[in-house]
Specification:
This protein has about 190 residues and is of the alpha+beta class. About 55% of the residues lie in helices and about 25% in strands. Keywords: Coiled coil.
């Protein structure tokens, strides 16, 4: 009877290992899909969406339409900043290397999330082939003021090692929000 129970557990372990492998592959595929795109690709996407949804041809927008769209974008940006607590203060991009199908850009980004200041510096390697573009973040360097938040340093170093900006911003947003709640609670009791 014990052998039967062990076999059931071994079968269950095998199924779980296969499921973990499938989920890991799916996660890596999703990460590759959520890469950064060049400014030209973003503009081409915006233009194709405009044609599809608004039926407008390229370059036929009046200044009043552009102002209305800018107002909508500013409203959306304001909503996202309130929702996530992340406010970008500066961004610079410098192309380090550009060949036929390979581009390396150096990005510097600074901002704050609630009361936590952050600064990022990373290189974005884009490889193009006929069907797709793949992008990889390398040399990620994250600088944060850790003064009273000493537990942030472990998080920052692990985020820098794995080079995943989406996870960094999600975690930073959540952590900073709870730090803000904690600070308000302590002020309330003083």
């Amino acid at each position: 009877m014990d052998n039967n129970i062990c076999q059931v557990y071994e079968d269950e372990i095998q199924l779980l290992e296969e499921e973990i492998k499938l989920l890991t592959e799916k996660y890596e595929d999703i990460q590759q899909e959520s890469t950064f795109f060049s400014d030209e690709e973003i503009l081409m996407s915006i233009n194709s969406l405009q044609k599809e949804f608004q039926g407008e041809s390229k370059g036929n927008e009046s200044p009043s339409d552009l102002k209305a769209r800018l107002g909508t974008l500013e409203t959306d940006l304001s909503f996202l900043m309130k929702f996530t607590g992340i406010q970008f203060r500066s961004h610079s991009k410098k192309t380090v290397e550009k060949t036929g199908n390979r581009t390396v850009q150096k990005h510097r980004l600074s901002g704050n999330c609630h009361s936590l200041f952050f600064q990022l510096e990373f290189q974005l390697l884009e490889m193009r082939n006929k069907e797709s573009v793949s992008a990889v973040i390398t040399d990620l360097n994250i600088v944060m003021e850790s003064g009273e938040n000493s537990d942030v340093s472990k998080f920052v170093s692990s985020a820098g090692e794995c080079g995943n900006l989406l996870t960094f911003f999600r975690s930073l947003s959540s952590y900073a929000e709870w730090c803000e709640h904690r600070r308000c609670a302590f002020l309330h009791f003083k």
